[in-house]
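Worked Example 4.2. Consider the chain below.
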Amino acid sequence: MRMGRFFSTSMVLLLVAAVSCTSSAKKEAKKNNDTTGQTKKIDQPTKPLPTGLGWKKQTFKAENCDIQATDEMDYVEDWCSQRTVELLTVRLNDVAVAHKINQRITKAITGNSSGIDAISKYVNKVKETNATDLEENLFQETITCWVRDTNDRFLSLGIASDYYALGAAHGVFSLQVLNIDLSTGNKISLDNLFEPSGFRALTALAKKKFLQQNEDLGWWFTTDDQPFELAEVFALERKGIRFIYQQYEIGPYCAGLPEVFLSKEEVTSLLKDNPYWPK
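Applying the procedure from the previous section yields the following structure tokens:
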């Protein structure tokens, strides 16, 4: 039996809460998102790179439209649980490093297993969904991978998840960024880039620049006791570093995924000697 989209009084109340951000704030958030680097991407290189870097895209998709409804729920028509993964895998002259990177990518998507077979299994799991547990089983999700930036030393790869659980007031958009050393396949951390003594100054600079680059949407670090902290998600770029906050991390839902960009020149005095941003 094809199951419709869940609808209830509780959903209406959640929806009202979700739209509590003012329409003007939403417009500002949309304007910010239109001009940010969250979805920055570069094209496949047209000339051979020293590392041999290139990439391939594959799409995996499954859906389940035959989910048995329960008596406790009301529906409208045409609900199908779905999961799509738009996977990206890389190739390099160093085959072993390329394999290591691809294992990292697939594991970041599935959460625990790596490899193409793990992606296929992860996607096809949607065919096993049922109405026993709404939050875990009835959902629509699209995961997209893309190359954000790269040079001869590093690769910055975005992995975005657009997720909607049946009955939720709104979807959830989240972003991972894998910053990878192209010579080893290892992840690049902030500790690889910055001197330990420089993190306090880095945080202060990021806060200053964040307030300059973003409209005032009632950021929690300005209205509550929450301190400003560097986002866990960061993207290494040839021209600098971008810190990207998840939904609700430092502001309301309507703020989207706010971010702050620091140029390489602005953080030069705080850097370790590193191969990714040669001085």
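The chain is about 30% helix and 30% strand. The first strand starts at residue 3 and ends at 6. Compare this with Example 4.1 before moving on.
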